[in-house]
Write a structure and sequence with these properties.
about 500 residues, alpha+beta, 10-stranded mixed sheet, 4-stranded antiparallel sheet, about 30% helix
Length: about 500
Amino acid sequence: MSVQKLALLRSIDRREFMQLSVGSLAYATVGCRRGGDPAYARGSTLIMAVSSVNDIKPDVSDLDFLVFLPLAKWDERGELEPWLARSWEHSPDYRDWTYHLRTDVRWHDGTPVTAHDVKFTLDLLSHPDVNEYVFDSVTVLDDFTVKIRGNPEYRDDIVFYPKHLLEHLDPKNFSQWDFWTRPVGNGPFRFARHVPEVMIEFDANPAYYRGEPKIARVALKFVGKAGFTELLSGNADIVRGDLAQIPRVARDPRFRVYHQIYAGAKAIYWKCDHALFRDVAVRRALTLAINRRELLRILNLPADLPIADGVITGRQLSRRQFPEALPYDPEKGRALLEAAGWQNRGGGAVRERDGRPFRFTAIVHDGDGFNQMAVYVQAMLSRVGIRMDLQVLDEGLMWKRLGGGDFEAAFMWQHWGADEARTRYLGRDNPTGYRNPEAIRLIDQAVTAGDPDELDRIYRALAEILRADLPLTRLVPTTLTTFAHRRVRGLSTPFHAKPDKYMEDLWLEK
């Protein structure tokens, strides 16, 4: 990073600090009392700012958990907790799952929830005009027992819809159904009213089988990109946060910052068949040159978030079973580069080998903190004699370039949840040039593994291979940041920070 750029960043930091200090003093003088805070005047109503009505539609966010129930949920210990299903059993190969549903759950119109609703929903989601999920088969055994053949990853992700209200609707118009703006669900909150282009409101469900939620009313306010402004002005209690906004929110005594972490990561993919990155010692040297713990602080994330190399399952994440990350060790990185023939003769800024400078271009996703992360990594690599240029692209073009192998290095997400994402960039015939037969064999096993213990074993073995080969460098864990007014209680970092998914567990300070 140039001296000019550092000076500019410092000047910006000073200006922002002065502005925030003045604002904080003013707020402390006139607004710190609860009586002057409009959030407390809302009483038992919570307002969550979302971009638009589309956010409440299926498979867009977890807001459908306000109204509908999944079969089960993962708890903070990495165990599945019964929800709509009270129990289940599986075949020895973990492909056939039989679920026994609760008999005391009703739709908000009073109709009992049955196995016919489960089958209807899964058939709907696998319909060619919807094409959200694919199942081998779904069979109703009796009114409260259903047998599902297929990968069980759907259990905590899919919520279920009322057959008696939706079976006559055309799946071709699935995402445009009016039902989504006046839903009849079976979950902790029930539809109250919808004001087009303004908001949708839900009341606590007094007949909810787990007990009536402590928050009496949840209003989802449609604010476009103005969520942060709505929060600061007192017009919203919760908004999805942006990493760049964290310092300002953290200094304001009205608010708290929460981070949900996932098994994936923001990472650098190296083009392993490129002349610069073919040598695993070079990829290791580049990884050692990056201070990932400091990068967390640069991105305004908690410094104690887990950093890992390789891959982990969601269950391993919940159990804090993280593959050990390589340490920050630039001296060892320099030694590895020297041993690989990349010399820094004559005091030049960039290492050379056989007259070729170690210089490459990394493509960078243009959002979610990737720009700031790439600039930091650029500065870190320059300290060990590596010149990395940056090319910023929108997300669509990033995926296209990455998927087509048209890159030297790429800053992008390492997704590791779904089969397709699991195999796309590291599995068989991947576009990154990574070719390790044992890693490919394990990835193929992971795609079909149903036993969670077996999947954990596969991931541990695969993580060791990836930690040794480093076809990508995991930088920081994938996170979702939430800003919440301090009166909102029950959220916590890093496993219970999604208010849309855990709203029934929250309460409001009186």
